[in-house]
Amino acid sequence: MTIREQAEQREYQYLSRYASHSASSMGRDREEKQDEIRTVYQRDRDRILHSKSFRRLKHKTQVFIAPVGDHYRTRLTHTLEVSQLSRTVAKALFLNDDLTEAIALGHDLGHTPFGHAGERALDEVCPLGFRHYRQSIRVVEKLEREGQGLNLTKEVRDGILNHQWELLPSTPEGQIVRFCDKIAYINHDIDDAERAGILAEEDIPERFRRSLGASTKERLDTLINDIIYHSIDSERIRMSDEIQREMVDLRRFMYENLYTNSIAKAEERKVPGLLKILYQHYEQHIEEMPEEYVQLIESGEQEQRVVCDYISGMTDPYAVEKFEELFVPKSWPMY
Predict the structure, then answer these.
(1) DSSP 3-state of 129
(2) Where are the domains of the chain?
(3) Is 160 within 8 Å of 137 (Cβ atoms)?
(4) Counting beta carbons within 10 angstroms of the beta carbon of residue 50, is it exposed (0 to 12), middle (13 to 18) or buried (19 or more)?
(5) Does residue 334 surpass a pLDDT of 70?
(6) Contact 204, 191 (CB under 8 A)
(7) What is the phi/psi pair of residue 26, to 5°?
């Protein structure tokens, strides 16, 4: 018996009856030989962790564009915090934390440079539309490994695709990530806003300070514990009605006081123009994109979708670099 098979047996012995067991996975689109050491979900986690799109998250905006300081979140640190919170919940509920971790690490792979401002810009300029969660699936199915994709299991892809609040993953592990994504960004965005001097803890309405806690740590404890104690021995991950309502209303407060704040978003007004100009340029000059994207078009992919693939995969500094290279005049070299 291989180490993987032993691990699969332990899952049946120790995990909840509602857990997604590795040996019962719906599998991959392309059948592969099983690994002797790792379960299918462990392999998915590793493939995401070692992907180029995952590494690029370190230079993509979370909330603040190009912040001065080493301690502000990026899309990568957001992803890691979602993973940590999600694994905590999964372990407490005896669900499959390997599957949970894989979904969490992959949920934002398709995010654009400059955060949601970049996502809105591409959605406006591309007639095919753009949503980061759909792009995340395109990344793992099509764009990674020079067009071969990562060949992830169906459970991981389902969790990535359906992590948005208005959607519902089919596994409890995916539902955990759906909650923890919101919990993570609400709280770490408050922390970053306080660091930037845009909000103080005292600016958080007293209602939320009483119901959820008067610090980031207290709020995280309240929200995570609420999920755990209301999801024990259940196939559906849930929060209590009261705490979920408070979380949703706190998120609304953040939209009104941070995500649309004129100071926090001062540089964001430049994003739509920059990305739309890049999109229009590459749509007219397909041959200037890297060869791997040109080949996608030659293989039958829609040009507009592939232009979105290229631009959405850019990091913040690379997008600025390409814009300057194409549109900002340079001094004439004098010798």
Answers:
(1) coil
(2) 42-327
(3) yes
(4) exposed
(5) no
(6) no
(7) -70, -5
Q: What is d(CA 140, CA 52) in angstroms, rounded to the nearest whole number?
A: 11
**pLDDT score recorded for residue 66:** 66
Each residue's pLDDT tens digit, 116-144 = 999 999 999 999 999 999 999 999 999 99
Question: 210-217 long-range contacts, Cβ below 8 Å, gap at least 24?
Answer: 211/242, 211/243, 211/246, 212/243, 212/246, 212/247, 212/250, 216/187, 216/188, 216/190, 216/191
Which residues contact residue 206 at a Cβ distance below 8 angstroms, ignoring those fewer than 6 apart?
Answer: none
For domain 42-327, give its CATH number from 1.10.3720.10, 3.30.360.10, 3.40.640.10, 1.10.3210.10: 1.10.3210.10
Please check whether residue 100 is in contact with residue 173, taking contact to mean a CB–CB distance below 8 angstroms: yes
Give CA–CA dist 43/49, Å, rounded.
10
Full-model pTM: 0.96
Among 219, 244, 220, 218, residue whose Cα is nearest residue 231: 244
Residues 32, 233: Cα–Cα separation, whole Å: 33
Residue 60: DSSP 8-state: S
Any residues with CB less than 8 A from the CB of 25 and at least 6 apart, and which? 40, 41, 153, 154, 155
**Residue 199 token pair:** 């909000």
Query: Is the pLDDT score of 67 beyond 70?
Result: no
Q: What's the token pair of residue 271?
A: 């994003």
Tell me the per-residue pLDDT of 264-311, one tens digit each, with 9 for 90 and over. 677 888 999 999 999 999 999 999 999 999 999 999 999 999 999 999
